[in-house]
Amino acid sequence: MSKLMPPAHPFDDDKLHEECGIFGVVGVTDAANFVALGLHALQHRGQEAGGIVSHDAEQGFNSARRFGYVRDNFTSQSLMKTLPGPLAIGHVRYSTAGSKGPTQIRDVQPFFGEFSMGGAAIAHNGNITNADALRRELIERGSIFQSSSDSECIIHLMARSLQRNIPERMEDALRRVEGAFSVVAMTRTKLIGVRDPLGVRPLVLGKIGDGWCLSSETCALDIIGAEFVREIDPGEMVVITADGVESVRPFRPRKPRFCIFEHVYFSRPDSILGGRSVYETRRQIGVELAREAPVDADLVCPVPDSGTPAAIGFSQESGIPYAMGIIRNQYMGRTFIEPTEQIRNMGVRLKLNVNRALIKGKRVILVDDSVVRGTTSRKIKEMILDAGAAEVHFRIASPPTAWPCFYGVDTPQREKLLAATMSEDEMRDHLQVDSLRFISLDGLYRAVGEDKGRNPSQPQYCDACFSGEYPVEPSDMIEKGFRLKAAE
Amino acid sequence: MSKLMPPAHPFDDDKLHEECGIFGVVGVTDAANFVALGLHALQHRGQEAGGIVSHDAEQGFNSARRFGYVRDNFTSQSLMKTLPGPLAIGHVRYSTAGSKGPTQIRDVQPFFGEFSMGGAAIAHNGNITNADALRRELIERGSIFQSSSDSECIIHLMARSLQRNIPERMEDALRRVEGAFSVVAMTRTKLIGVRDPLGVRPLVLGKIGDGWCLSSETCALDIIGAEFVREIDPGEMVVITADGVESVRPFRPRKPRFCIFEHVYFSRPDSILGGRSVYETRRQIGVELAREAPVDADLVCPVPDSGTPAAIGFSQESGIPYAMGIIRNQYMGRTFIEPTEQIRNMGVRLKLNVNRALIKGKRVILVDDSVVRGTTSRKIKEMILDAGAAEVHFRIASPPTAWPCFYGVDTPQREKLLAATMSEDEMRDHLQVDSLRFISLDGLYRAVGEDKGRNPSQPQYCDACFSGEYPVEPSDMIEKGFRLKAAE
Amino acid sequence: MSKLMPPAHPFDDDKLHEECGIFGVVGVTDAANFVALGLHALQHRGQEAGGIVSHDAEQGFNSARRFGYVRDNFTSQSLMKTLPGPLAIGHVRYSTAGSKGPTQIRDVQPFFGEFSMGGAAIAHNGNITNADALRRELIERGSIFQSSSDSECIIHLMARSLQRNIPERMEDALRRVEGAFSVVAMTRTKLIGVRDPLGVRPLVLGKIGDGWCLSSETCALDIIGAEFVREIDPGEMVVITADGVESVRPFRPRKPRFCIFEHVYFSRPDSILGGRSVYETRRQIGVELAREAPVDADLVCPVPDSGTPAAIGFSQESGIPYAMGIIRNQYMGRTFIEPTEQIRNMGVRLKLNVNRALIKGKRVILVDDSVVRGTTSRKIKEMILDAGAAEVHFRIASPPTAWPCFYGVDTPQREKLLAATMSEDEMRDHLQVDSLRFISLDGLYRAVGEDKGRNPSQPQYCDACFSGEYPVEPSDMIEKGFRLKAAE
Amino acid sequence: MSKLMPPAHPFDDDKLHEECGIFGVVGVTDAANFVALGLHALQHRGQEAGGIVSHDAEQGFNSARRFGYVRDNFTSQSLMKTLPGPLAIGHVRYSTAGSKGPTQIRDVQPFFGEFSMGGAAIAHNGNITNADALRRELIERGSIFQSSSDSECIIHLMARSLQRNIPERMEDALRRVEGAFSVVAMTRTKLIGVRDPLGVRPLVLGKIGDGWCLSSETCALDIIGAEFVREIDPGEMVVITADGVESVRPFRPRKPRFCIFEHVYFSRPDSILGGRSVYETRRQIGVELAREAPVDADLVCPVPDSGTPAAIGFSQESGIPYAMGIIRNQYMGRTFIEPTEQIRNMGVRLKLNVNRALIKGKRVILVDDSVVRGTTSRKIKEMILDAGAAEVHFRIASPPTAWPCFYGVDTPQREKLLAATMSEDEMRDHLQVDSLRFISLDGLYRAVGEDKGRNPSQPQYCDACFSGEYPVEPSDMIEKGFRLKAAE
């Protein structure tokens, strides 16, 4: 249907992107304000659009969905006073470039449904790998979809459940769903959180005063002053009311497979994942990388901002001075509406500038978190050489990204991934740098605390983007022609 | 859910209001442009919001829904180029003040649904009298409603039909529906029009080049240069493609009961209803009124603009000069956002001003189309007397409005209708005018061409708002406590 | 400088347009609200933009200027509360199509200047015929103009006056100015009104409670409930404070020459000009026209809405029935932003529709107020013939418009005026109508109450647009090459 | 006059702020696009609003002024195509909180004036210390000011000059002006740059293809790919055309006094000032600080982002590991419109979060660039202690800020400056930290390359904010009661 806000990406930032952040709170005055703050802290998980649903005993359910940053929308009195009540959930969303066309406001979560026992709203982080099949089945049986989102299946499955209360309808629905899902949902009185059996996406529980909150990451607990209680377990569902937290296990138990890329890039460095500081893990990746791939040079420079902790670790392990060789423009956003040709051609120069006086004549190690298509890496290399660097050495804080993610991350098609078609040496030649080294998969596992590295027979994490080993079969994609590694 | 545009009504204009106008066209280039023009011509049937859905072979279905006038939204290139294709339908909507709260954009038609055999959009003029019951049943069975509109039931009933094509699913759906409905709908290739068995609301067929169009009124055919072919019959469904117009009769035949108030006020004076010029009918009402209720006076003045044709007729029959005693501000719209207190108190003076020099010392006959609550009539009388009129005589071009309409017209609750609680003489005293006379029901029937007046055993029109005789039982309302005339 | 809102005129409405309406009030609470209402009543004098300046003892001067209708801007609480205080003036403005490019917000009045003795704001209706020369002189001496408006000269002349108070500075300034001007101005404590020595444009004084107001027309007094006191005399300046109205005569006395076209078209029919009802004058024009140019026909139809009073007069004098043969769409505004090609081609059909059933087979007299370029007249004639009229006779309520106005009216260049190049008979043939007759200049003077018609040696009105006799030499235009009648 | 955009500062970021950045270019196609990019790179010098004026041979001068970031306004095709031509200048502006009320669009530069020899536009960085006196004199002589900006004096002085060309008029004007000014101006054919005799604010010259550009800082040359040619000298004026750069010296020569705070905080780290890398200077400040004020601790953490280079230097000199103890939210902007109470109370937590897992139990050195009122320092200290830090030591990369700046920097009134009323030890106690040390004034001079430190008899820089020694007498402020150091 109608296209509301065609975003332009003037430069390819060449990262994998988490598609969503979710947050919910119950038992506080003006819960929506807390949700807005939580979503602001989770903005790195989705910058395109956001939504909040709240419930108030008198005014019932209210909702607002907006394109743009949380801080530009959900901070104004006039909007926030339309979202009263002690219970609210929210969602921030990243647009999946290319594949499905521009996002429309009707694709922005939370989704809401009116059931015979009352309304419910849900916010979903992850991706349903059998969504196409479910959608076809539901339409055939008379459901009318309002969005192109895979997440909408959940609410239709709930509408058709024969259970007599909403948490049980949600259990029914989620048992039909395959893939990765962390869900925050609400009824008129309950805040609900669920993680899929593998626990691919994060979800944490916090306590704020007499109330409770659920969040994708701990950094969003900090901003509202909530205390971190614990992670929701893989396969666990919590139903939270004023009386406390009830926990159920609706799914068949499985070995967890948390997404290792959350440690590498998606999560914020001040969050705590699996009991580990994300910042410290990333610094440790830099340490491992300096051990695995040392090089003689004058400066260690991060590609800002995501390469910074690993660059610090690399500098500390190697003894080569750390320096800000590339400066980031703080006033840069992601997208432009209808940009001029010149803006479109500027690319990464709109966002990054080389610290010319520092770089000139130096042998520079650039530490970046990942290489996806290699487009940005190439431009950065050119900027560094233009500024007179003597040598450029890339050190990458993740293994080669050779496979797409189907669990809630926006990845290019496989053939666009540089590592899908080239070896490390070929990539070095392609990027025309003096050296290029990725951390090994075992090195990455060591950095996240697995001292013996990766267990090949039963990997401790989901690392499908590096290994091609998918813990949940991507059935919709296979139907569309995607070939698994084994099948190649 | 969230409230998007709370309209303020600074003055009670004290009219009954048609709730919708509908228009569709197939077989022309850029059909949506024609729909926009048609809706502009039908704007008097709904000023609050409008929507258009189009279909293009390459780009599929597109839609745009906006608050405000057609001319302020659906005239810009940038919007209209998002609505390509040779097939489009549209809808303008009036807000039903008070009862259901402010309209939200999701309540704006056309409604769209994706079925297993493809998408369909519908636009509905009228009101479904068993909508509450249908909605309860559909939700119980798993449908998720997106709007508060009664019309959304139709699309959910269609989604659940077992028929294999969309026109047959629409037949299925409409056979479950009670009340008044003229519907314009579209699939990827077909334009569909239906009128309920009583034919309460109008719907006409037009020919434009090799294409066809459907419209609430003929005045919208004129604006696009289409030729008026015929009215859609009560109980008829037409399915129009490039190959022509196919007609079916899905309902059990009944005696038609077209809304007589369309002649009095709703339709535009340049439209043709049932083969009669609306303007001429209204002029004839004035003639009948001059015969039934003559009075000695100096001037016959219309209450602009709707009283004008009847005032002309009254003047011609009585020989009393016609004059513009009240001048209407042409720059007046209907609603204000967040108006100042002073604007709120201005009332009708924002819109009408007395032609003081003309009125002073004169005996004035004011011809208005109807009296609903009497609030505006009273203010107009005060303005006229303030300007120095010697006498004020009201002549009303419709019988006393004593009953609410449940077939797609916004009417106050019965107790708010002046004629529900007062006789003609009591109303005269209440309004403090020198005389007040309504046309008789038989006089009105004569003016629309029924020379013998109304047939009490089988009335030729729906005149429930005057007579309290409802041709379709308003079952939702009865459940909510409304008492029919017989039951009083 | 930057172009803010390029308006598109989808159809040439082929009228002369008054360029401004002005209003001011002192001595009431929240004066700006009254000004907003007054400007709403004067909207017909300028629809493109409006502005209000108010003064409050605590908050000083505040101002707001907006494109669009008064009712869409100056009705909201949030805007109006930024305009506090007991003293305010305002202005509505028509854009002068073509000649000077699109209006910018900085061209919207009132204009404001900070002088050493305090601030002042002025609003001007009319046109300064020596503005170009004044502007050149002022710039040469160091003034910096902010707008392209001729009216800005007044405020710069005031800034350079050596007088010690603002009213005297205004006298100084206006003595340098040639042309037509009605001005409403304000200081921190005074409301000031001035009319040029000829009194070309109207200005009236009203009383509201303990306060006073100034307005272009009396209809704006009615809307706020003010009492009409008197017209400001040609050449008079009034300085109004809480203590009352002081009157001075700063100019050399001259014989008044009020604009006769204000009676024909510009002013609202419910206003009183020179002690005469505008409506009654227009009706009388119709009477004169029926006497001067009778014709045998079936119907007298106005071209809505401006032809209506003359059509009523024509019908009454001729005995031929009055009828609404052309229906006006009430939801039509003047301009579109970036309209589609189709909208652009629609022309007058967007606004007017023929009442086909009424017109068919009839001999129709169409009464219009004026013919400027003849473009709309031609399209209306075609619509009437398409609807099956047997004959079309045009009767025009003003003499042929053969000369441009330089006193505050937007007129096409002389060569675009139909009457500048054709005789009445040639115009009839050009428009292809059965007959075409204009009222004579003497007939028009009789209709405004000059029983002996026009005094050729000392005309009682400014009728330059008909006669080519300009009471003030248009010196800027002559410098640009305009040739006066005598010089031809 | 009317208030257009009241910005709310939800947290006091407690920094001094540069008030402006300026940029101009001549001799390139679509110069305004280059100006937009340049202003984007200078956004840190003014985030509230921006403006661009361009000149095109056919379309003359065009301008656009907008609130908000450059990237949100001056990137769209639709706006930029209204700014054609090979010559353009632009300005970004910071709002001076409190003192003068909210900025209005008419205060946004460049300012434009139409002179008898053609138009000119100017953009000014700095502050005119005798602006009040000049304004009074100009108004007395008939000038009408449009803004509250001190910079508007320049254009009025130019309008009154008797010189026959614009560059000479600008010389005339600037010789009347006292204070700090770097100016970029344009006529129809010339790009002009001027720096005041002391050279307080920066201005550099660049070459781009056959064209030239002027910029506040070199980082804006980098973004458009221009080559850095040289700094404009203090007291120099350059007049640039297609034919090249002409240099004149309109002022009496003086010893330069460049603003030393540009090195500390205002300029971007990737700019080059006086031949020195800003980043390297800041790192060196950290080195000096580590020597002057060593402390035993576990971690050196910057207060992001401005403390980062000095923290790196401190870590390198002290050997204490560098770490990101505080994480900055990248999606934080400066201001909110009408924020909720909760947002207002959040303060710095909206922007910064402590890396709790890292900080816990550690002795932390926090390196910040300055302490102004101390409000933010106190909140950061609390966040760090809440996270469990064992000790908190502040090290500040500038001397105590004890005096306001009157040369184009937004500073609080003197009594609000913490260092104006407290010694270093008192500040430490006030902030309740374990230690607090500022770099010495001599240490700062050493870091900028003056090996012998500050020359007290003839300081090499303007350091009035630290020393209270003002190189230009702030005459307007003295008239308002400001007391110089000597007078205390």
Automatic annotation (TrEMBL), chains A, B, C, D:
<dbReference type="InterPro" id="IPR035584">
    <property type="entry name" value="PurF_N"/>
</dbReference>
<keyword id="KW-0328">Glycosyltransferase</keyword>
<keyword id="KW-0479">Metal-binding</keyword>
<feature type="binding site">
    <location>
        <position position="259"/>
    </location>
    <ligand>
        <name>[4Fe-4S] cluster</name>
    </ligand>
</feature>
<keyword id="KW-0408">Iron</keyword>
<dbReference type="GO" id="GO:0004044">
    <property type="term" value="F:amidophosphoribosyltransferase activity"/>
</dbReference>
<comment type="pathway">
    <text>Purine metabolism; IMP biosynthesis via de novo pathway; N(1)-(5-phospho-D-ribosyl)glycinamide from 5-phospho-alpha-D-ribose 1-diphosphate: step 1/2.</text>
</comment>
<dbReference type="GO" id="GO:0009113">
    <property type="term" value="P:purine nucleobase biosynthetic process"/>
</dbReference>
<feature type="binding site">
    <location>
        <position position="405"/>
    </location>
    <ligand>
        <name>[4Fe-4S] cluster</name>
    </ligand>
</feature>
<dbReference type="GO" id="GO:0000287">
    <property type="term" value="F:magnesium ion binding"/>
</dbReference>
<comment type="similarity">
    <text>In the C-terminal section; belongs to the purine/pyrimidine phosphoribosyltransferase family.</text>
</comment>
<dbReference type="InterPro" id="IPR017932">
    <property type="entry name" value="GATase_2_dom"/>
</dbReference>
<dbReference type="Pfam" id="PF13537">
    <property type="entry name" value="GATase_7"/>
</dbReference>
<feature type="binding site">
    <location>
        <position position="369"/>
    </location>
    <ligand>
        <name>Mg(2+)</name>
    </ligand>
</feature>
<dbReference type="GO" id="GO:0006189">
    <property type="term" value="P:'de novo' IMP biosynthetic process"/>
</dbReference>
<keyword id="KW-0808">Transferase</keyword>
<protein>
    <recommendedName>
        <fullName>Amidophosphoribosyltransferase</fullName>
        <ecNumber>2.4.2.14</ecNumber>
    </recommendedName>
</protein>
<comment type="function">
    <text>Catalyzes the formation of phosphoribosylamine from phosphoribosylpyrophosphate (PRPP) and glutamine.</text>
</comment>
<feature type="binding site">
    <location>
        <position position="465"/>
    </location>
    <ligand>
        <name>[4Fe-4S] cluster</name>
    </ligand>
</feature>
<keyword id="KW-0004">4Fe-4S</keyword>
<dbReference type="InterPro" id="IPR029057">
    <property type="entry name" value="PRTase-like"/>
</dbReference>
<keyword id="KW-0460">Magnesium</keyword>
<feature type="binding site">
    <location>
        <position position="462"/>
    </location>
    <ligand>
        <name>[4Fe-4S] cluster</name>
    </ligand>
</feature>
<feature type="domain" description="Glutamine amidotransferase type-2">
    <location>
        <begin position="20"/>
        <end position="243"/>
    </location>
</feature>
<dbReference type="InterPro" id="IPR005854">
    <property type="entry name" value="PurF"/>
</dbReference>
<keyword id="KW-0658">Purine biosynthesis</keyword>
<dbReference type="GO" id="GO:0051539">
    <property type="term" value="F:4 iron, 4 sulfur cluster binding"/>
</dbReference>
<feature type="binding site">
    <location>
        <position position="368"/>
    </location>
    <ligand>
        <name>Mg(2+)</name>
    </ligand>
</feature>
<feature type="binding site">
    <location>
        <position position="306"/>
    </location>
    <ligand>
        <name>Mg(2+)</name>
    </ligand>
</feature>
<keyword id="KW-0411">Iron-sulfur</keyword>
<dbReference type="InterPro" id="IPR029055">
    <property type="entry name" value="Ntn_hydrolases_N"/>
</dbReference>
<feature type="active site" description="Nucleophile">
    <location>
        <position position="20"/>
    </location>
</feature>
<keyword id="KW-0315">Glutamine amidotransferase</keyword>
<dbReference type="InterPro" id="IPR000836">
    <property type="entry name" value="PRTase_dom"/>
</dbReference>
